[in-house]
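User: Here's a structure from my thesis project, written as structure tokens. My advisor, Dr. K., wants to see whether a designed sequence matches the one we expressed. Can you design one independently, without my sequence as a hint?
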């Protein structure tokens, strides 16, 4: 799957704030994602993102 900076991706896992969508801030071995619900930022290994992604908006 081709994920680029600026994409909004939807993950299977729900953030505690109730949101499923994340903005991609950085790609690489690790992705930096920003929660569209609460603005929280996380670093996630690429593998984990590819396993949990439902789609790109
Ligand atoms: Zn959140």
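Assistant: Designed independently from the structure alone:
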């Amino acid at each position: 799957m081709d994920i680029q900076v600026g994409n909004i991706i939807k993950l299977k896992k729900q953030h505690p704030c109730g949101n499923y969508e994340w903005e991609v801030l950085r790609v690489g071995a690790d992705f930096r994602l920003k929660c569209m619900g609460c603005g929280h930022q996380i670093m996630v290994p690429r593998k984990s993102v590819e396993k949990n992604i439902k789609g790109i908006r």
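When you compare it with your expressed construct, this may help: The chain has one domain: 8-56.
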